[in-house]
Amino acid sequence: MKIIIVGAGEVGYHIAEKLSQENQDVFVIDKDPEKIRRITENLDVQVLHGVGTSPEMLRTSGINGADMLVAATDSDEVNLIACLLARNLNPYILKVARVRNREYLKEKELFSKDLLGVDRIINPESVMVETIRNLMMVPGASDVVDFEDGRVKLVGITIKPDSPFAGRQLLSFQGLEGKVLVGAIVRGEQVFIPHGEDTIRSNDLVYLVVKSDEMPYGFGFFEFEPNEGRRVMIVGAGETGSALALALEQEKMSVKIIERDAYKCAALAEGLDKTVVIHGDGTDQNLLQEENIRNVDFLVAVTNDEENNILISLLAKALGVKKTITRINKLSYISLVSAIGIDTVVSSRLSAVRAILQHIRRGKIISVAPLKGEHAEAIEAEALETSDIVNVPLAKVNFPKGALVGAIIRAGDIIIPRGDTIIKPKDRLIILTLQKSLSKMEKLLTVKLDYF
């Protein structure tokens, strides 16, 4: 595919990096020479110094022959105009725009084919709020990805040294068949799709496929805790922090939010019913202690300063908070945080990547979610009648090494599969695959699951 990216900030850079690793034909447009230099030095993509709202610049990038345009600048208006121009220059191009302004998001007709003609809106902050909320709904989870409107969950659990599962082979688990499937294991920088003889080790991040309404609390992977009344402290009252506070009020959680901007505090206090709004500095140890941080279940650091977010989370951990959730967007930081004691990281950049990948994957793809470390993906796809994987036991399907089916959705029913499970036409499949197996998986999805 030929993909044009307008904007080389953190979101645009990361999307370009992801696509270049997959040998896509990528053009990046940005007006900032420093950002252009960064991409030129680090990525194997083509770059243009200019603005994405210039018809001539878009023509120079080859818009007429492009398959997709991703407008990912920090300006909603630039992104929307770039999509509008792209539609006029190439009626067949797929247009994806990053939009942050809530007023625009409420005007759904604005993005229709009759007006701007935007095919997909990316609002990373909204996705991030939902991600944080999901993490709170599953006690002990390090990562949660929803499929089928939340009815199927892919849950990442970090195995502590004292866990009863540390040092055990997957074959040793009795009673989990049809309830839980271990889909992937992240061990340091390595990600692998496990087999029955593989052993879980302490500090592994284990991804489990589970049914939302049948969470297997009795097996020890999860601890049941009622959400109502749980205590949450949010630091940062920007778009993410304020939207999260509103969402958690509806879950009947006890919420406090700390913000150093007095104007934001006043506006937030008017818009929220039960949240306690505190004007102060989240890095102030005395303030955190005064607000009884030791008895808080979740500390969520979502200021616009990621260094401050890291400091706040580390301070809260030292003061006794049960769990921290930290907003970090710089790729170089994400790989380091687990080593320094931070529990869980959320990233608007990774949220944006999750939102566009499904448009790039070949085959009958419904959704795509990169896993932690981004060396593996969970793909939701549909099995069609033309596929020779249907009506055959899974054990006999020639899936590429490093890929497996984690769940099957059939006529509203959810099946956690075993080797003798048979896929039927129109089943939705949740497939976990390593990056190195992705091209073979895509070929299988294109040739087997879909045809043109």
Key terms for this structure?
Rossmann fold, 452 residues, six-stranded parallel β-sheet, 30% helix, alpha/beta, Alpha-Beta Plaits, 4 domains, 26% strand, disordered C terminus, single chain
General description of the model:
The protein is an alpha/beta fold and 452 residues long. The strands form four sheets. It has a six-stranded parallel β-sheet, sandwiched between helices. Strands 14-13-12-15-16-17 form a six-stranded parallel β-sheet, sandwiched between helices. It is globular. Helix 6 packs across helix 12 (348-360). The protein has four domains: 2-122, Rossmann fold (3-Layer(aba) Sandwich), CATH 3.40.50; 144-219, Regulator of K+ conductance, C-terminal domain (Alpha-Beta Plaits), CATH 3.30.70; 231-346, NAD(P)-binding Rossmann-like Domain (Rossmann fold, 3-Layer(aba) Sandwich), CATH 3.40.50; 351-449, Alpha-Beta Plaits (2-Layer Sandwich), CATH 3.30.70.1450. Helix 5 links the parallel strand 5 (94-98) and strand 6. The protein is built from 13 helices and 22 strands. The two termini are 16 Å apart. The model is unreliable at 447-452 (pLDDT under 50).
